[in-house]
Amino acid sequence: MSGDFALTNLTHHFLIAMPGLEDGLFSKSVVYLCEHSARGALGIIINKPADIKLTELFGKVDLPLRRADLAHAAVFQGGPLHEERGFVLHEPLQPDASVGASASYASTMVIPGGLEMTTSRDVLEAMSGGWGPRKVLVSLGYSSWGEGQLESELRRNSWLTVDAKSSLIFDTPIEERYDQALALLGLKSWMIAPQAGHA
User: Fold this and answer.
1) Is residue 196 predicted with pLDDT exceeding 50?
2) 198 lies in some domain
């Protein structure tokens, strides 16, 4: 089975919710999969903003945010698990000798494909100091599937899958991410609508 599984490893892929998936948070969602193995999968929803901005979140953890580029950034609802915890999806950190920044954080998952996800406070401290990763998506909570659960949902056609593009995560306006993810497959939302005549 492990040989077959290697062909379906969806790490660094997007899961795009099909119209029939009407589970509140996952409805019309795009999930970036950080990890997918025989044990299960872990991902972050990248198109569902929370009711809090990044500047407010930093205030709650007693840190100023000295990054003008992030002043109006949204915090995302990454999923229904551990919604009180922050998860920072970001480009790999390059060492910056001028500010003494380290090229690693205390708790970072390196995702094959080029991105990283950090859960330790030091990434927030780096961002607070005006450096840290240049492109970031901060979420509260994450999404997770147990062994075989995601595969079962894929067999039920709950999700479409496509190779992830970091530009869609970091550079595409939030309200366009679902349609742009579908466009990676050459699809438009009306093509997969459950019933004709519904937008």
Assistant:
1) no
2) no
Residues 6+ apart with CB under 8 A from 109: 34, 35, 116, 117, 118
Q: Which residue has the tokens 């306006």?
A: 173
- Residue 43, classed as helix, strand or coil, is strand
Contact 76, 117 (CB under 8 A): no
Task: Indicate the SS3 state at residue 197.
Answer: coil
Whether pTM exceeds 0.85: yes
pLDDT at position 132: 87
The count of structural domains within the chain is 1
Q: Which domain holds residue 28?
A: 2-192
Burial class for 29, CB neighbours closer than 10 Å (0-12, 13-18, 19+): buried
* pLDDT one-digit tens code per residue, 101-138: 445 799 999 999 889 999 999 999 999 998 889 999 99
